[in-house]
Specification:
- By secondary structure, this protein is mainly alpha-helical.
- It has 26 helices and no strands.
- α1 runs antiparallel to α2 and α25 runs antiparallel to α26.
- The longest helix has about 30 residues.
- The two termini are about 45 Å apart.
């Protein structure tokens, strides 16, 4: 009996806590999922949730992750119910749901991996330059180093035996580093009485009405803004909508749904490991994500929410103030620099205060704001945490793309194809100083985010249908599916609501580029859903 099987057998005869202890030793796929979700998207989302909503949205990201866990559990059930390689989820989706949806799922995964891996390389470069003292280093030197490190680790992972196990442990270490770095900051803040405990606990209770209105913290300032109070109400509500959608999108992304089956197959888990897979998702994904994301929100809320004297960069401050001034001066964009400076200076103090409160912050801003509590350690702590974030997420983007590309050729995990697929996002990452900047960033990010947003509920729909497919699961079809279906319908419904809300935001955008892609997404989502449902019903009836 192998060591892995021995530990698994010990878990079966242990009590609840003993089972957790043994299962923790065997876990892996959940940690890989955590490595990709604790990336730049979660960082940006958590930082701005704390700025705009304070502690009020502490419930949001855990709820988004719970929805993801429900669907990932369904994906693991489907994967582990089949013994043959030809019955892997992608093939089941093609055969029993719809080839169109299956290929859309795969293509959306590749697009998301390539585009958003570039964002992780950019995040890593920012951490080195902004937090770790590498301000004078060439960005291409940093991204080149990250490329070599990441691809070397992926090369090891693509092998078998001890090398792959080492990468599993490296990913666990990176995720633990992220969580401990940010949790450590919260502990220091709590020790210094910098956390409002009553607001924190109330923020854990879902308040869905808060999704559509500014928090009470802004009421006095908005009232004082007079005729521009409506502008600020709309600005805050729109900012909340965008960041809320981002939080849902980064909790569980389209590519994470594609990755999980291959992680489970690489582990060689079987039907008997279904319970282990659920524990693995809780231990490796749910808990680290909630701790890491919540720590970021708490830290940011304590330093920036509704504080008119909070630390802010000049560029972020001007971005908000200029949005308010454009509502007053229709020809604002035609003003020269001197006139813009004069108008900014003459703006009412309440507008200046709200601009400080609502300006976006990055990790460097938060590190600077926390210097009174952490001293010179603040930059180092955040630098290490964010670099770990970037490295772990880029590794998994590469891993996901390797599986997707090899699957596209019908040879999932075949080493040469896997490595070719894995290097593509890394190449995009190396060129991130060019690709993830200015107009090029928008040109890539807008269509990629629309495709990923549209296809996420479609991926959920695929597994909702497969979990109810007699032809796909046969004797493994869950016997009592009422609760399972309620949970999956709920998760799919929330994902669909978030997708439609995000696409509506792009459709209503004045930018023609975003408007067009938003329209395409709004039309494509119901069409794809209808195609999938009709195709599934026909295949089940045949």
């Amino acid at each position: 009996m192998s060591k892995q099987n021995e530990i698994f057998q010990q878990a079966q005869s242990a009590g609840f806590f003993g089972k957790i202890y043994h299962y923790a030793k065997l876990s892996g796929p959940g940690w890989i999922q955590a490595a990709v979700t604790l990336g730049g998207g979660t960082l940006v989302g958590a930082l701005y949730l704390g700025v705009v909503g304070g502690y009020q949205f502490l419930w949001l990201q855990p709820l988004a992750m719970l929805c993801g866990i429900i669907m990932l559990s369904a994906i693991s059930y489907v994967t582990l119910s089949k013994d043959k390689l030809e019955d892997r989820p992608f093939e089941l989706a093609k055969k029993h749901v719809s080839p169109t949806l299956a290929w859309g799922w795969l293509i959306a995964t590749i697009i998301a991996d390539v585009v958003f891996c570039a964002a992780q390389f950019a995040l890593g470069a920012d951490a080195v330059q902004g937090n770790l003292g590498g301000a004078n280093l060439s960005p291409f030197l940093i991204t080149g180093t990250l490329f070599v490190v990441a691809f070397s680790l992926i090369y090891l992972f693509s092998g078998e035996g001890k090398a792959a196990k080492i990468i599993d442990n490296i990913i666990k270490l990176l995720v633990a580093t992220i969580v401990l770095a940010f949790m450590g900051v919260v502990v220091v803040l709590m020790w210094n009485n910098a956390v409002n405990w009553s607001d924190l606990f109330s923020g854990l209770i879902p308040d869905f009405s808060a999704l559509f209105r500014p928090t009470d913290s802004y009421a006095a300032s908005i009232s004082a803004a007079g005729e521009y109070g409506k502008f600020w109400t709309n600005y805050i509500s729109e900012s909340q909508r965008n960041i809320i959608i981002g939080a849902f999108g980064t909790a569980v992304g389209i590519n994470m749904t594609f990755l999980l089956p291959y992680s489970l197959m690489k582990k060689k888990w079987e039907k008997k490991h279904r319970e282990l897979s659920r524990f693995d998702l809780a231990l490796g994904l749910l808990i680290p994500f909630i701790l890491g994301a919540s720590a970021l929100i708490i830290s940011t809320a304590s330093q920036f929410h509704a504080k008119k004297d909070g630390y802010v960069s000049e560029g972020a401050y001007h971005q908000v103030l200029d949005a308010r001034l454009k509502a007053q001066y229709s020809d604002f964009n035609t003003f020269d620099a001197n006139k813009v400076a004069q108008i900014r200076q003459a703006a009412p103090q309440v507008d200046k205060d709200l601009s400080v409160m609502l300006a976006k912050r990055n990790a460097n801003d938060l590190a600077n704001a926390l210097k009174p509590f952490l001293g010179d350690w603040s930059q180092l702590i955040f630098g290490i945490g964010i670099l770990a974030m970037a490295l772990s997420t880029m590794l998994v983007h590469m891993m996901m793309n390797g599986y997707a590309v090899s699957e596209a050729f019908g040879q999932p995990g075949q080493r040469k194809l896997f490595l070719i697929g894995a290097v593509i996002p890394a190449i995009a990452g190396f060129f991130s100083p060019l690709l993830w900047n200015g107009a090029a960033k928008t040109a890539l990010a807008v269509p990629a985010s629309v495709i990923a947003t549209t296809l996420l509920p479609i991926a959920y729909l695929i597994f909702l249908l497969l979990m109810n497919s007699k032809k796909a699961l046969g004797a493994e079809l869950p016997k009592n599916r009422v609760l399972v279906n309620i949970l999956m319908f709920l998760a799919t419904g929330i994902a669909t609501f978030a997708a439609v809300w995000a696409l509506l935001g792009k459709y209503q955008n004045a930018n023609v580029y975003e408007h067009t892609f938003g329209l395409v997404g709004l039309i494509g989502l119901p069409i794809l859903a209808l195609v999938g449902i009709i195709s599934f019903m026909r295949k089940e009836a045949a």
